[in-house]
Amino acid sequence: MKSKRPVKDKLALSVRFPKYVGYADYFLRTPVSVLVKNESAEEVSVRVLSESTEGLIVPFEAAADIPFESSVELNADAIFSPPFLAENDEMRECTVETSAWIEDAEVCRDKTKVTVLPYDWWGGLSGNAEFLASFVRPKLADCARVLSDAGQRLKKWKVDADFYGYAGTDKNAVRLIAAAIYASVKQLAVEKTCETDLTAPVSVVAESVAKTRKASTVQLAVFTAACLEAARLHPVLAVGPNGVGVGVWLYDSCFLDSVTDDAEIVSKYISEGINNLSFFDADDLFMNRNFAFTPSEQHFAQKLKEGYFEYFVDIRRCRMGNIHSLPLRGKGLHGYELVKEEDMSDEKAPTPLPILRKLNLEGKQPKNKQWERRLLDFSDKNALLNFAGKNALHLYSAGCDMLHTLLDEKGSLRLKSGADAITTAAFGGASADKNRKELIELEQRKGVVRVFADAKSLAEVALRLMRKNKEADEESGAKILYLAFGFLRYIDKEDKQPRYAPLVLAPAAIRRAKGNEDFSVALSEKEYFVNSTLLEYLKQEFNIDVRGLGGDVSALKISEISAMVRAETAGMKGWDVVDDVYLATFSFQRYLMWNDIRKRFSELKKNTLVSALLNNRMERKEGAGSEEDSGAPTETLVPLPADSSQYSAIALSQTGTSFVLHGPPGTGKSQTISNIIANALNDGKRVLFVAEKKAALDVVKKRLDSIGIGDFCLELHSNKADKAEVVKNIEHTLSLPKEGEDAGYFERAEEIVSLREHLKQPMLALHKKRRLGVSVYQAILYYLQNKNSPDIMDIESSFYDSLTEKKLADCKNMILSAAAAAKECGGVYNSPFENVNLTEYSQELRDTVYCSCEVVMTEIRHLKSYLGLLLEFYRQKVSTLTQKKLTMMSRISENLSSGIYDKYFAGVDEGEFFLFYNANRRLDDCLKYYHKSFKTLVDVDKEYEELKKFCEAGGDYRLSRIATNAVKKLSRAATGKFAEEDIPKYLQTLVEIYGAMKRICGNTNLSKQFTDRGGNIIFRRRTEFLADLYELHALASKVFLDYNPDAFNGMCVRAACGYTQPVLRGYLKAVESFASAQEQFLAVTNADVNKIREEDVLDYYASKAGALIDNIDMLSNWCMYKKTSEELAKAGLNFITDALESGRLRGENVLSGFEKNVYKNFLEINIPADPYLSSMTVGTLEDTIEKFRLAWEDFSRLSREKIRANLLSRLPSPDGEDSLAVEISTFTRLSKSNLRGTGLRGLFTEIPTLMGRVAPCMLMSPITVAQYLQPTADLFDLVIFDEASQMNTAEAIGSISRAKSAIVVGDPKQLPPTAFFHNAYVDEENLENEDLESVLDDCLALGMPERHLLWHYRSKHESLIAFSNIMYYDNRLCTFPSPDSLESRVKLVPVDGCYDRGFTKRNRKEAEALVAEVIRRLSDPILSRSSIGVVTFSSAQMEYIDRLLTKEIASKKLESAAYDREEPLFVKNLENVQGDERDVILFSVCYGPDQSGKVSLNFGPLNQSGGWRRLNVAVSRAREEMLVFSTMTSAMIDLSKTSSKGVAGLKAFLEFAEKGKTTLAVKSAFVKGGAGIGKFIAADLSGYGYECRCDVGASDFKIDVAVIDPKNKHRFLLAIVCDGDEKFSVKDRNILQVQTLKRGNWNVMRVYTVNYYNNPKREIKRIKDMLDKLTGADKKAGVWMQKYKKPYRAVKETAVAETALFVTGGENDVAIMARLKEIVALEEPISRAFLKKRCLATFGLTKSGAKVESKLDSLIDACAFRRERLLGSDYFFKTDRAIALDKFRVENAPFLRKTEEDFTPYEVVSLIRGVLGDRVALYFDELMVILCNVFHVVHPSDKFAMFVRDCIAYGEEKGLFVRSVSDRISLA
């Protein structure tokens, strides 16, 4: 060992401590170090120790390697003792001793003297100048007082008292604040205590300046700096040996260093012009100094100049250097107390109270932990909460920790009975055995553990425990044997009895010890855990949260766990933790499911859906499942009938998509599930079907059996499953023979597709949107709505061709606008505004029109005045003064006024002019006639007189020379040869001409104007002269009424003197004025002159102007109409305005007329052009529908056969050598030993592939899933949950994890899982990880795809489901109306009772009334056929009714009627009625007015959360009728006093029962808009006297027209279904709806829209013919019967009567066989029994026997007839026509057939078809009467009736009949 001496001399210590040490050194972490110097030539390892005997420092120790000839500095951070420094009140000297050690030897030591300063002392100028800033405490209360006073000063100075620092850049504002603080501090009148000497340590903080009013200069300066900093300003302290100054930055700034000695820069900063800083002398703050702020600034400047100050400490810069204010020291109860700066301020909220660490859960718990909690069992039966010590081994223990350690170390300990053979030991025995603790420990270390039991009991219990653990492992894969370390003794809340629950559980195992004499115990797993059930129970029941122990506790000892629990429960009276140790089995009802999640969750969470539920997040992947109208029948099979909503779910299930299937009551959930399973099995998938209730499994299993695949389904609902039965089922399936597929499968599928298209295409064509944006169906409706509107005949075809959807809509809008505008202005036909073509209205326009009308009216009055004078003067009349007449009259007046006619009238005698004018007129007439036959006028002037005489005398012209010459002249002038008999006429004309000429020339001088000198008339001049006169009379004759030219000439002659001139001129001026006014009027109104009618112009304009004046207020409306008219014209709709203005249309029917014409044209184009619509006929469609129905039924049968054949084909061959051979061998071996040594779980694990073949579908409960199936991911392809709303997620997780996809079936509107045995506690701290009420709700919350079952089938009367449908399902369920739906089947039975609210909580009278009704129904032979259920709203009422009913049923001996039936009577309350249904449900509300008449709104479970769901379940249980017995009416429930949805539902339900469905309000979003053609059909039928209802039904499915039975106004007679709704699938529309209606007692008829449009009369006649059949008014009744009827032909009987020996002897076999063949040939079809009877009869045998029967049977079989086995009998026939179901035979007396054996099903079915063809539908009893009459069955037996029923069922199977719920049969 090396010597340490040389080293000791070479090692030196140097401690670097500050000269002065105060609290600031600790607070601000003043660095301290030890320098170790090694002067030796070798490296040394040194351990350095520092300590202070006074307690100044905390002992310090450090180690270091010191290189040779080197030094190492060791930092000793934070070594000062804060309590020592905080409590030091005097300046004292302390010694710090530091020593260096090498190994254990001290090599050197150093002693350092340190001066310790009292609290709040500063080391002065020789100390750390920066530390001065730490004594500036701005949070002092005195600072706040100073600032408050300073604020008041600033207000006096009229300065904003803002102490929020440098809000702006105004230095004066900051200086004023500093001055105010200076003044406020000075106001304190502080007395100076001593002179300043900063060369030595000094106290820099006074106790309380404001209180003591005493301080030193440096203390007052520090306080003032604190006040400035409190005002959020930046103070600076100037310090010197004998002086202190206080400064403040006048803007937001600081020095570069925290302490500066540059006085020059400070001097610059305070100088005028710069003013960055303001300093004042601290001495001026004392009371004896009378200097204000500004003089004090000057004092400081003088001292600065004289060098008073050595350092300037910038407080802000120090704060930036982490030099913060020291805590404030004060006296407390236990010495000094330090208050930190943040604790001095009241600006911040108080520091939160510290939360002590507890054993509660920390952080959020994952969902799997919540699932575990949900599965825990808190009942008394659970040994994990109530351990009694029975069937367990109580172990001696010297300590739980030691025992567990020894078991872990040694592997196992041998079990030995107690040395004292103690057989019993109470809890706590372990602690009572302290005296033997050493012995116990010694034994256990040697490998022996004692048990509180004798050897025999020990062996028995150990063996039992070992066997139970092994069985559990075999059956469920879960080991249940544990060592329980420690027990919690607690007091039960209910019975106040002590309970014991194990604390720590360690999985254990019992094995046989060596020699098989003893048993040993071992740990099967090293880890132990705390009893989770207990932890959760404590939290929920006692709010003791120690759930933090529920995780990994491997770091804790068992004793520590016990101590923690003991501490948490210390406050509970009677509670304790005992350290007993037990070896026992622990499990509970749902232990296996819990164990799955706890132990095997890593495997479970591999499942996609489990992972989604765990993380509340799911990636939505929805497969593209086909829809019914597009899917291939061979892809998605429907072995059981399915509607389109069910089909959609089935198809989606095939894609592997997980989804939620909503199944409201009665929508066919079980049938849909069965179809899903069938498709999955057909596709080779494995299916797990899970349901809580066995009844749900049984229903599905029954349906699967019915379609032939039940053999491949294994039902394991109970955890007590019979292993032998399971093995037997598997063996049975393996033994099934292969079956071939029936031919025609694919052909039928193709036929279905073809027929579906034939039915789908017309519907698509009918509802397809076409060019105008409407379908043909919509167009037909539009047309029918407007069919009574007038036609618009002048619409051009080009307009139709140009129409588009947008243009049509625009046209309609414009037409509506035009109609509205027309209405606003009072109509446009004969409107006062007619021909007023104004479009833009304004006030100016109104005034202009009004003024123009007034002018016209004035001018008309003026003109009428002159017109009256003129007519009076000239003695004329005018009837209608048209514009033309007015013009002509103006011309006459103008000519008369101008003197043009003076040449005729002036100076002429009136009489002479009369002769002159008339002679000229006569001359004109004769000449006109003459010149028709002659070219020139012959001259007979000289012969005139003689010729005149000849003509007057008459005679033969040939006898007169004059006449003959005249004739000759005439012949020469003639244009042609004239007839002899015309000569007298021409001669007379010639005489007349010359006579007129002579009168013209002889009476007046006027003739001189046109005669020559000889007095001869010059005709040309005459014409010119008389032209004006003739024109005058032509005009006058057109103007004047009853015009007389002579009278007018006379007035003209008289007026020639000029006296009428004023009148004429006035009239002309009046006409001119009127014309001007007229022109202005037409211009203002923009009138079309061509549209002015030819009528009295003055009256027209007078009426027009007057009407405009009277209606001028409507001018704006007219302008709007005309503007719209222009738009119509632009759109080519002139015909609209023309029709309106012509009166052909009115405003109210213009749009309907337009639509009628447009849609009529649309239909005339589109229907013929569409190949499907144009060929649509009733017969074709009905025939296609029937084929489609039969094809589907046959294909369903073929589908069932195909699925079964596929499953059979997958079964392994017994002698096969494929991969299944090993598993078959394994199964054979295990089955022979009856699974000895293994359980079902082991069996399924051994033969997984074989199980997929023999039992691809397993029907199980959640518990049996955990028990019998390995937690293997994707063990199944599909898991289906039924009634998922009643299964919580924790129960379902295990099943979900075992399948690739899941279908969650349930109804979220029905009851959630019951909370009776389950844990309903909600962890408020982990709400986001809490499950919802059920797995259904959780899956919906994930956003899983959804499918909804929409068709409701259960209720036989729609009113039974209407309430739930409308209230809770938003009327989304499609329900079927009933023929008697005019009356509700939900009825209120009011009871005059009272609710015993405070005592029994029953309603006695209500119960008695209900019981009486039940007894009445059970006693009635007809009413008792309907099953009955009683539902109450409370448990007390249920028990009371049950007791009364039991008593009454027993007394009336009605047990058989009540209970011995398929659906026995039940009495249940709201909580447990889900899943039950009965024909009749009787409710007892129970609640109601009490004895005081008060109604409490507490309705038990209905008030609870989800109470409405209980009500929904209860009111949807009835199939036929529902009676509500209630003392309370709906009016008694005041909803303003409660917000319970359940109570609101009860009120609505009572109101519904009282008044019917009219009380239920359907949301507007779900109201079906607009009726189809039904209302038109109903209107047509009403003309025949039939009363109809349209859109009958309370749901989305409606019967278009329902005809009321004329003989029974409470029922409907016929349902007419139309094709208006396209949302239903082809099968739903054509098969489902009609078949379901028929089963519901409806007579159904289809009417197609296109057919009704094409020929409504034909369709109405078709309907009326059906109604006539139904009402018995059909005159052709019996036609169908005759069609099916044919005579019965029988073989004649022989005259000789034979004996029995004739048959049995054998010699006559040939003859008998010949007779049998003859009978079959003639009387086919014939039953075996009747064939034998007929054979014997033909041989004269009347009696038979066993031998005869046997012989005949053998002979019949030998004949090898064609036969069919039907209804349990053989029927023989020769040809297929005999069994064609289209003929029945009748016979005449004597009648051969008398019993059911004599008739064949073929004939019975045929007869029923014929009867129903005539009568549409009949009840079974009515059919029996007709059958007996036709077949002459006088006394039908019960067997005959049963035979007929079987025949009807056979007809149903063949798709011929539909049987309703009330046994009413109709044709399918």
Shape: flat
Number of helices: 68
SS content category: alpha/beta
Q: Please state the oligomeric state of the protein chains shown.
A: single chain
Radius of gyration: 61 Å
Largest sheet: 8 strands, mixed
Task: Provide the low-confidence segments as ranges.
Answer: 1-5, 353-358, 1315-1330, 1564-1569
Number of strands: 51
Distance between the termini: 119 Å
What does the average pLDDT come to? 83
Give the strand content. Answer: 5-15%
Could you estimate the helical fraction of the residues in percent?
Answer: 40-55%
Summarize the structure.
This protein is of the alpha/beta class and 1868 residues long.
How would you characterize the overall build of this protein?
It is a single chain. With 1868 residues, this protein is an alpha/beta fold. The strands form 13 sheets. Strands 20, 21, 22, 23, 24, 25, 26 and 27 form an eight-stranded mixed beta sheet that branches. α12 (367-375) packs antiparallel against α19 (591-604). The longest helix has 32 residues, at 1178-1209. The two termini are 119 Å apart.
SSE layout:
Layout: H1 5-10, E1 11-16, E2 20-21, H2 23-27, E3 33-38, E4 44-51, E5 60-66, E6 70-75, H3 82-87, E7 92-102, E8 105-116, E9 121-122, H4 141-156, H5 171-187, E10 191-192, E11 202-203, H6 209-212, E12 214-215, H7 217-230, E13 235-239, E14 244-249, E15 259-260, H8 263-270, E16 277-281, H9 293-305, E17 311-314, H10 315-320, E18 328-332, E19 335-339, H11 341-344, H12 367-375, E20 393-395, H13 400-410, E21 412-417, H14 429-432, H15 437-445, E22 448-451, H16 455-476, E23 481-491, E24 498-512, E25 519-523, E26 529-530, H17 532-542, H18 558-568, E27 576-585, H19 591-604, H20 608-615, H21 644-653, E28 659-662, H22 669-682, E29 687-690, H23 694-706, E30 713-716, H24 723-734, H25 745-767, H26 776-785, H27 797-802, H28 805-824, H29 843-873, H30 883-898, H31 902-905, H32 910-930, H33 944-953, H34 961-973, H35 983-1003, H36 1019-1039, H37 1045-1055, H38 1061-1085, H39 1097-1110, H40 1115-1130, H41 1134-1142, H42 1150-1169, H43 1171-1174, H44 1178-1209, H45 1220-1232, H46 1240-1246, H47 1248-1254, E31 1257-1260, H48 1262-1268, E32 1276-1281, ...
Parallel strand pairs: 2-8, 10-12, 21-22, 28-33, 28-34, 29-31, 29-32, 30-31, 32-33, 35-39, 36-37, 36-38, 38-39, 42-43, 44-48
Antiparallel strand pairs: 1-3, 3-6, 4-5, 4-7, 7-8, 9-11, 13-14, 13-17, 14-16, 15-17, 18-19, 20-27, 21-25, 23-24, 23-27, 24-25, 24-26, 40-41, 41-42, 45-47, 46-47, 49-51, 50-51
Helix pairs in contact: 4-5, 4-7, 12-19, 12-49, 19-49, 21-22, 22-23, 22-44, 25-44, 26-42, 28-40, 28-42, 29-38, 29-39, 30-36, 30-38, 32-35, 32-37, 33-35, 40-41, 48-49, 52-53, 55-56, 63-64, 63-65, 66-68
